[in-house]
From TrEMBL:
Domain Phospholipase D N-terminal intervals: 32-130
SUPFAM superfamilies in UniProt: Metallo-dependent phosphatases
Organism: Umezawaea endophytica
Domain PhoD-like phosphatase metallophosphatase: 143-476
Protein name: Alkaline phosphatase D family protein
């Protein structure tokens, strides 16, 4: 974006010159875009991070080691003629010069526009909205969810297509960025882009990596179109980490908690979330209420889980059935089940990371399951499935698996004739895995062994949903390539879930 004049900033009510007023050529600090998140009926969280040199190796983004004042505006219109709120915040070096503004006192169910300014520069304009009044049921909702965007594996075109759909809300279900150094984790058809810096271990590493991701124009467009609600999975820290345990026991990392703390801080600095880290933890589980139409229970299936059973992987494992094993941790599990009991929502939606339903990877009586997913914590899953009885309609949204899946959640997994109690929608990756395909040669075998799985597609993309009081429609949106930019998105399949009738109906 070209610098705007000081006169323009004064007219817009955002006159700040704080970085280098004496400089004749100030550098744009808004290279990472803007974002908003976690709306309520009267508030929304606005975000930006100043980084005139986003790929600086020290993670500073090229910012000076001092606080910088940033002005912000929230308006009813995209020309900012009718201002709803405005103010200033400090972008501080100890938080990566990020800005988190919790704007309150807003009207429910309204669209707003926002922007930031500093150093004679104006950010792009973002669009956001508040949620409806708590008792509102009839206002429909268009929500999109996405996950798994490995920079090297492709272009972020799917984010651009998601933005073009202009959803009211976006959920990101993890693997927003990947920790690998360049060339280590290669897509099947080869990597198409490189990442800067080494494997992310230090705070500076994580800050630099987020800056490279957030410099992407397609990702910035998706952030600017609607409020997001985000949760992490493993790659925001390291592959298959579990609680306080490094994901690769064969390669011990005694300072893993130091690394985890740095990753948590970088996550907060780069996401539109209210909760900041405390000590070595960051509470991400929370709820977003869309009136009485939907409650989104955003889960953290990494920070509180037991270590993966039987050394992790896909294999037979009796330990996964141990009734004491947990993927949520006792506090989060109690919070979730109590939320089901108290819910008055038409749709209770779980925004979470790893495959929820049972999935047997091999034919025959022996079960080979993914021990990093809910299959490795079967008793905890059973408790959640039992809790679904307290909801009117339960839908589980899933990331991680780099493909699109539609699943009927059964009361008893090993009895295909048992009652369907909920539905799982697993979205594909934005890029992870490269271009992909329509399916795998093994697909017929998988579906035969797992009759509760109703749909599979291996293209990259996202899921677009439309919620009303009577239906939950899911469009699996796919791109035929991500190895080159500009692919179109097409609807590979559409399913409908009906009120009080769990399970998938293909349209």
């Amino acid at each position: 974006m070209s610098p705007v004049t000081r006169r323009t900033l004064l007219v817009g009510g955002l006159a700040l010159t704080t970085l280098s007023a004496a400089s004749s050529r100030p550098v744009d600090p808004f290279t990472l875009g803007v974002a908003s998140g976690d709306p309520t009926p009267d508030s929304v969280l606005l975000w930006t991070r100043l980084a005139p040199v986003p790929l600086a190796e020290d993670g500073s983004g090229g910012m000076p080691p001092r606080p910088v004042e940033v002005a912000w505006e929230l308006a009813h219109d995209d020309r900012f003629r009718h201002i709803a709120r405005r103010g200033t915040e400090w972008a501080r070096p100890e938080l990566g010069h990020s800005v988190h503004v919790d704007v309150t006192g807003l009207s429910p169910g309204r669209e707003y526009f926002y922007r930031f300014a500093t150093n004679n520069h104006l950010s792009r304009t973002g669009r956001t909205r508040t949620t409806p009044q708590p008792w509102t049921l009839t206002t429909p909702l268009t929500m999109a969810f996405a996950s798994c965007a490995q920079y090297e594996h492709g272009y972020f075109t799917a984010y651009r297509r998601l933005a073009e759909d202009e959803p009211d809300l976006v959920l990101h279900l993890g693997d927003y960025q990947y920790e690998y150094e360049s060339g280590v984790h290669v897509a099947p058809n080869g990597n198409v882009r490189g990442v800067e810096g080494p494997r992310t271990v230090t705070l500076a590493n994580y800050r630099q990596r987020y800056a490279q991701y957030k410099s992407d124009a397609d990702l910035q467009a998706a952030h600017a179109v609607a409020p997001w609600s985000v949760v992490w999975d493993d790659h925001e820290i390291d592959d298959n980490w579990a609680g306080e345990i490094y994901g690769k026991p064969e390669k011990p990392q005694p300072d893993f908690m130091t690394r985890r703390k740095a990753a948590f801080q970088a996550y907060y600095e780069n996401m539109p979330i209210r909760q900041a880290p405390r000590g070595v933890g960051l509470q991400l589980y929370r709820r977003v209420h869309w009136g009485q139409l939907a409650t989104f229970h955003m889960l953290d299936t990494r920070q509180y889980r037991d270590d993966q059973a039987c050394g992790d992987g896909i294999k037979p494992c009796d330990e996964r059935l141990n009734p004491t094993r947990t993927i949520l941790g006792p506090d989060q599990e109690s919070w979730l089940l109590k939320g089901f009991q108290d819910s008055t929502a038409r749709w209770d939606v779980l925004g979470q990371q790893v495959f929820f339903s049972q999935y047997d990877h091999t034919s025959g009586p022996v079960q080979e399951t993914n021990l990093d997913a809910w299959d490795g914590y079967a008793a905890d899953r059973d408790r959640v499935v039992t809790g679904f009885k307290d909801t009117r309609n339960a839908v589980v949204l899933t990331g991680d698996v780099h493909a699109s899946w539609g699943v009927d959640i059964k009361e008893r997994w090993d009895d295909p004739t048992s009652r369907t109690v909920a539905t799982e929608l697993a979205g594909s990756s934005i890029t992870s895995g490269g271009d992909g395909s329509e399916d795998y040669p093994e697909t017929p075998q998988w579906l035969a062994e797992n009759p509760h799985i109703k749909y599979f597609n291996n293209r990259r993309g996202y899921v677009r949903t439309h919620l009303t009081p009577t239906t939950f429609q899911a469009d699996f949106r796919g791109l035929n390539h991500v190895s080159t930019p500009g692919a179109t998105a097409t609807t590979k399949a559409t399913f409908l879930i009906e009120d009080r009738n769990p399970g998938l109906n293909r349209l």
